[in-house]
C-alpha cells in the first residue's frame, strides 16, 4: 500500500489501477511543507531599482531599471475598502524600494500590496529561473482543452474559455469567489478538487494566499496547472506539486505599461502587443 503526501494531506493509492479515486487519510503531515510564498522568495536571487509602479483598474505592473528594462504583471486585487486604512500605506514612495524589497510584499495581508509584490517578483524572475527554450507558446486554454478532454476538470477562477472546456470534458467544475451561473462557490474546493483529474489554479491564488490550501485538496495523480498573467515561472511551484505553468512574459514594457495605465483588460493588453503567453512543464 502506497501513501502520498500532498499539501497538508496524506492519500492512499487505489488498490486497483482501474479505481478512479484516491482515499483521503489524514490532515496530519509528518513534515510541514514550506509555504509557497516563502519558497518563491527563497528562489529569488536578482535585484534591481524600481523605475515605475502602475496599479491599473485590472492589472498591476512593475518596471525595473535594468538593461534591457524588465516588467512584470499581476492582477490588481482590492480589499473591502479604504475606510480602515489605505491599501498601500507607502503610496507615493514606492520608487525608493528595490525590486526585491517590493517582492517581499507578496507576504502582505492587504491584497493590493500583494499584487504589487507579485508584479515585482515577475519582473525580477521573468524567465531567468528556467530555460526559455523549454517553454511552448501555448496558452492555458489550449493546455486545459488538451489535458481535460474526456476527463474531470476543476478550474479555480472563471476564465473566458470555461464554456469550451465544458463541451469537451467529462465534467467541468468552476469554483469562484463570486460565482456566475453554472459556477460553484469557492468554499466547495475541499469537496470538488479531490474529484478532478485536471486542476487549473488561477495565479491569483498566490496573491490572496489560498494556494497552499487549494493544492492540498488535489489528488497526487491529478495534472495541476497554474495559469494567468500573475503566474511566476518559478521552480518553487514545481516543487510544490504543480505540473505546468501558463504565464506571461513582457517583451515591450513601454507598450504594456501604456495599456495598463489606461485601464486595459488583459485582452486589450494582448491586442496592444508587447507580451507573449508561454507554458512551461515540469
The name of the CATH architecture of the domain at 132-248 is: 3-Layer(aba) Sandwich
DSSP E strands, number = 13
Low-confidence runs: 1-8, 13-32
Strand order of the largest sheet: 9-8-7-10-11-12-13
Write down the secondary-structure element order. EEEHEEEHHHEHEEHEHHEHEHHE
Chain-averaged pLDDT: 88
The helix content is 25-40%
Distance between the termini: 26 Å
Oligomeric status: single chain
Q: Structural class of the helices, strands and pairings?
A: alpha/beta
Count the DSSP helices. 11
What is the molecular shape?
globular
Please report the first level of CATH classification, the CATH class of the domain at 132-248. Alpha Beta
Rg, Cα atoms, Å: 19 Å
CATH topology annotation of the domain at 132-248: Rossmann fold
Strand content: 15-25%
Described by strand count, sense and barrel closure, the largest sheet is: 7 strands, mixed
List keywords for this structure.
disordered N terminus, 28% helix, alpha/beta, 7-stranded mixed sheet, 282 residues, 13 strands, Rossmann fold, 11 helices
Explained architecture:
This protein has helices at 36-42, 99-103, 111-125, 140-148, 162-168, 189-192, 204-207, 211-216, 235-239, 253-261, 266-272, and strands at residues 3-6, 9-12, 23-26, 50-55, 59-64, 70-75, 152-156, 171-176, 184-185, 198-202, 223-227, 244-250, 275-281. By secondary structure, the protein is of the alpha/beta class. Among the domains are: 3-33, no CATH class; 132-248, Rossmann fold (3-Layer(aba) Sandwich), CATH 3.40.50. It has a seven-stranded mixed sheet. Strands 1-2-3 form a three-stranded antiparallel sheet, with no helix packed on it. Helix 5 (162-168) links the parallel strand 7 and strand 8 (171-176). Helix 10 (253-261) packs antiparallel against helix 11. The longest helix has 15 residues, at 111-125. The radius of gyration is 19 Å and the shape is globular. Mean pLDDT is 88; it is low at 1-8 and 13-32.
Amino acid at each position: 500500500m502506497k501513501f502520498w503526501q500532498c499539501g497538508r494531506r496524506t492519500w492512499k493509492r487505489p488498490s486497483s489501477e482501474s479505481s478512479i479515486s484516491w482515499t483521503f487519510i489524514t490532515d496530519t503531515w509528518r513534515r510541514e511543507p514550506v509555504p509557497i510564498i516563502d519558497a518563491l522568495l527563497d528562489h529569488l536571487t536578482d535585484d534591481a531599482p524600481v523605475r515605475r509602479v502602475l496599479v491599473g483598474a485590472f492589472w498591476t505592473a512593475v518596471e525595473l531599471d535594468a538593461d534591457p528594462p524588465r516588467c512584470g504583471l499581476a492582477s490588481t486585487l482590492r480589499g473591502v475598502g479604504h475606510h480602515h486604512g489605505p491599501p498601500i500605506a507607502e503610496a507615493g514612495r514606492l520608487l525608493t524600494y528595490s525590486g526585491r524589497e517590493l517582492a517581499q510584499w507578496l507576504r502582505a495581508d492587504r491584497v493590493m500590496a500583494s499584487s504589487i509584490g507579485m508584479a515585482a517578483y515577475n519582473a525580477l524572475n521573468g524567465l531567468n529561473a528556467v530555460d526559455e527554450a523549454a517553454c511552448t507558446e501555448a496558452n492555458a486554454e489550449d493546455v486545459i482543452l488538451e489535458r481535460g478532454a474526456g476527463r474531470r476538470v476543476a478550474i479555480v477562477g472563471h476564465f473566458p474559455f470555461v464554456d469550451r472546456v465544458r463541451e469537451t470534458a467529462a465534467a467541468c467544475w468552476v469554483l469562484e469567489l463570486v460565482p456566475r451561473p453554472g459556477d460553484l462557490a469557492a468554499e466547495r474546493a475541499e469537496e470538488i478538487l479531490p474529484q478532478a483529474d485536471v486542476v487549473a489554479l488561477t495565479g491569483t491564488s498566490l496573491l490572496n494566499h489560498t494556494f497552499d490550501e487549494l493544492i492540498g485538496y488535489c489528488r497526487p495523480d491529478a495534472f495541476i496547472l497554474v495559469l494567468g498573467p500573475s503566474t511566476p515561472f518559478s521552480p518553487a511551484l514545481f516543487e510544490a506539486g504543480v505540473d505546468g505553468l501558463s504565464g506571461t512574459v513582457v517583451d515591450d514594457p513601454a507598450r504594456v505599461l501604456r495599456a495598463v495605465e489606461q485601464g486595459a483588460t488583459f485582452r486589450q493588453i494582448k491586442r496592444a502587443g508587447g507580451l507573449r503567453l508561454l507554458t512551461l512543464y515540469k
